[in-house]
Specification:
Layout lengths: L2 H21 L5 H24 L4 H17 L9 H21 L15 H19 L2 H12 L4 H8 L3 H34 L1
Length: 201
């Protein structure tokens, strides 16, 4: 089995386990159906939001499950049609908590697993790592709107609902976030080009 297939199988198994855990929550039939629809429609965006807040994949999966557990407990409070906004807000709060927990833990990251790969896989991995690093360096308020708008494709109104801030504030933060991200990317590219030049010289 290729590394991609192994990763895909592991992800599918994790999602299936999350779905089983959610099905075990005591709910009436209508609530269970609603929660099931929320999970199938929005699990991906919940995971990606947590992941792009600087949380490693394994913890992000745990965080996604916690978000849906929160949704199950507060199902009656979630306005119909606003499920996505609620879940994104819960995902952001969960990511913040996970970041605080990580900051208090003196644990190193797991070493990368070895295995067969290709230049394309390595290049994609480096780009993901660079994206994660640049996002992690940004102020949280800016990072959040950039992730939701540019990576998740959320409209300003959806971001406004999820974050509880005016659309004008969303637009302002998004402009600042885009400028900030591009400036950081240019600095990284200039630094990398300088390093290559020193090696070549």
């Amino acid at each position: 089995m290729t590394p991609q297939a192994q990763a895909s199988a592991a992800t599918e198994a994790t999602i299936a386990a999350e779905a089983d855990a959610i099905r075990a929550i005591p709910l009436d039939d209508a609530a269970r159906r609603r929660l099931g629809r929320m999970f199938s429609d929005h699990h991906g965006v919940v995971f990606r939001v947590i992941r792009r807040m600087g949380i490693d994949p394994a913890r992000a999966e745990d965080g996604a499950q916690q978000v849906f557990m929160i949704a199950a407990r507060r199902l009656d409070d979630i306005v119909s049609g606003k499920e996505r906004a609620f879940l994104i807000g819960a995902a952001l709060n969960t990511a913040r908590r996970l970041r605080r927990e990580r900051a208090h833990q003196a644990m190193g990251s797991e070493p990368p697993r070895s295995g067969p790969g290709t230049d394309d896989l390595v290049d994609r991995k480096r780009k993901r790592e660079l994206l994660d690093r640049l996002l992690d360096e940004m102020e949280e308020d800016l990072r959040v709107v950039l992730v939701l708008a540019k990576i998740e494709g959320q409209a300003k109104r959806e971001i406004s609902d999820a974050l509880g801030i005016p659309e004008g504030t969303v637009a302002s933060r998004l402009r600042r976030a885009s400028d900030d991200f591009l400036a950081r990317l240019k600095r990284h590219q200039a630094s990398s080009a300088g390093a290559r030049g020193r090696v070549a010289g």
